[in-house]
Amino acid sequence: MTARRTAPFAFIDAPLDRAEHLRDDAAALARLWSDGRVLVVDAEGRAWADDQGQLLAPPCTSLGPMPADALFLGLRGDQGWFAMPAASAVESGEPPGVDLRTAAGQWPGFEATAFAQARAVLHWRARHRHCGACGTTLAFARAGWLGRCPGCALEHYPRTDPAVIVAVSDGARLLLGRSPAWPPRRYSVLAGFVEPGESLEQTVVREVFEESAVRVRSCRYLGSQPWPFPSSLMLGFAADAEPDVPRCNDELEDARWFDRDEVGAALRGESGDDGLLLSPSISISRWLIEGWYAGTG
Fold first, then answer.
1. Are the C-beta atoms of 18 and 118 separated by less than 8 Å?
2. What is the spatial distance between Cα 38 and Cα 76, in angstroms, rounded to a whole number?
3. Dihedrals φ, ψ of 20, to 5°?
4. Is the pLDDT of residue 174 over 50?
5. HSE-up of 213 (CA within 13 Å, CB side)?
């Protein structure tokens, strides 16, 4: 049986060597395609899987010659790994697909990490087919990592949106909020996107106050997680804050302080039918909560 994920959260375990220097080497890419594997992702962002829901990454050559829209993901040892849209794959009868959240919880770390990379870049390409300056259809180059505009020569690169995610404490309690779209009783740490001209520390202070009216005194960076839903990078912080009474804006349905006993019971799955539910283990948010509870965050 293949090993499961060992990292503290998904999409960072056993990444490919992206081998950026090979992206313009057509001969090297052709050789890698001849012995490589390919992740095929459909228009809904699901990867091909077998009947047991495990990754189906067929040999590249089983899908024919290397197509123009193939994306070179990188190397695993000496083997090349690629991705391509399902619409371009020559296959009789499309296999079942698995979404990325399911894969993150069930697939080995390497496979889920490669899938996250593939999905994020293919999502960008599918939604950035035209130049944002002049509207001309883009031509993709560098093994799928660069969009060049034939009209105005502008270059377009895959987009990643930085966002902070913060375990906020007043010294004794942890601040958690809930979105109205989440399952009942689900709470998580607060998060928000970085704005232009803003440092990460400034984002922490602003976002926490905007979402909860709690004033942050200081913060420190702890770690990051790519979050390809569709194209974010979550930058994890721990923050010390005033014991203000939380007040929500339109983004959150509720925000409140939880003490150690409440958080501990939720982490152990002992909250009962009316107690606190926390983020799943695939996300950095759960890691931040666990760190606060353990006193290491």
1. no
2. 12
3. -55, -30
4. yes
5. 10
